[in-house]
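Researcher: Next entry in the queue.
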Amino acid sequence: MGKLFQILTILFVLSTTASAQLQDHSQETEPAAIRSFGGVVETRESANPDNLPVVYPVEERLTVFSEMDEDFPYVEVAMREPVFVLASDDNWLHVRTKGGATGYVLSGSVSDFWIRVSKKERTVRIYRGDDLHRTLPADLAINFFSNKVRKGGQENVDHWRTPEGVFYVVNKNPESQFHRAFVLNYPGVAEAERGLRHGMISRDEYNQIVRADDRFEMPPMFTKLGGFIEIHGDGTGARTNWTRGCIALRNDDIDELWDVIKVGTPVLIEK
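Model: Structure for this entry, 271 residues:
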């Protein structure tokens, strides 16, 4: 459960920290991504001392019920917040929230799938918890070995890059020009903080990105940071470099993943 818990915690801390900073525009702090990585190392075991399986909501708000009955709502959990599985029973899971509340959730309202992308290997790995589910060849950006920092274009193809970091699937596009597409929440909070710090985006653009993240919505895609980073189809299967930043899989692979990869699925993109 370790890696999925780390990724979910990073996403959750990024979101909650950035939302709090919106209340004080003058606040200058260390980037949230750095703070959250440090916090995960320190708190992972104490937050889940029993090493329980971890799942995450695939709905904007997950309802935890006090009994295995939808007539008894108890508490709600936000998308991307870790939920720990104590036991399973038919269509229900007995769970504990990060806040310590215990109750029951419908098994279809949570998932343990997540995606790991290795740019160096040009490979996508699909996991269920800690178990490797699929290994797939991927095509990446023209400049796949560098991290994305700004929008690319015909005049600066060097910036057609695949970003690195922790993201999640914010939307699914069944009518993509590249067969089908899982749209990622790039630019996210970490990219917005960097862009604001280096004068690439305005304070208003920063706030728009943070609010979109807080509301689980598509972020602004037309700032100088770029956007529309997707895991889409029309991949060659030959691990080539031709996209403008996206990750391209073979159409059959996208079709196989379409029903199991939900909005909210974490995506880790590594160098």
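Model: The first strand starts at residue 54 and ends at 57.
Researcher: Noted, moving on.
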